[in-house]
Design brief:
The protein is mainly alpha-helical. It has helices at about 5-15, 35-50, 55-60, 65-75. It contains four helices and no strands. Helix 1 (about 5-15) packs across helix 2 (about 35-50) and helix 2 (about 35-50) packs across helix 4.
Length: about 80
């Protein structure tokens, strides 16, 4: 079997079953994020692995801790 990364697996399942579409702003409008799919996948990965947003931003290129925390605070809830 080919070697897979955990982040890659989360991204593939998000793409296949589109669970990331359930996230979004509380207002119900379209998200104004640059890349909502990528932000939601990374945010889910970070929250589920108990990595801080700063640590994730340090190791994942093209994302900042602020962008991840905004996606987590404003676009994800336990109900969603």
């Amino acid at each position: 079997m080919p070697e897979r990364s955990l982040l890659g697996i989360v991204a593939r399942t998000g793409y296949w079953i589109e669970w990331w579409r359930r996230f979004g702003p509380a207002s119900g409008n379209d998200p104004k994020l640059k890349d909502p799919f990528g932000r939601y996948v990374i945010t889910t990965f970070v929250k589920d692995t108990n990595v801080t947003f700063a640590e994730a931003a340090r190791h994942i290129a093209g994302v900042s801790a602020h962008e991840l925390s905004v996606a987590a605070r404003r676009h994800t809830t336990t109900a969603k």
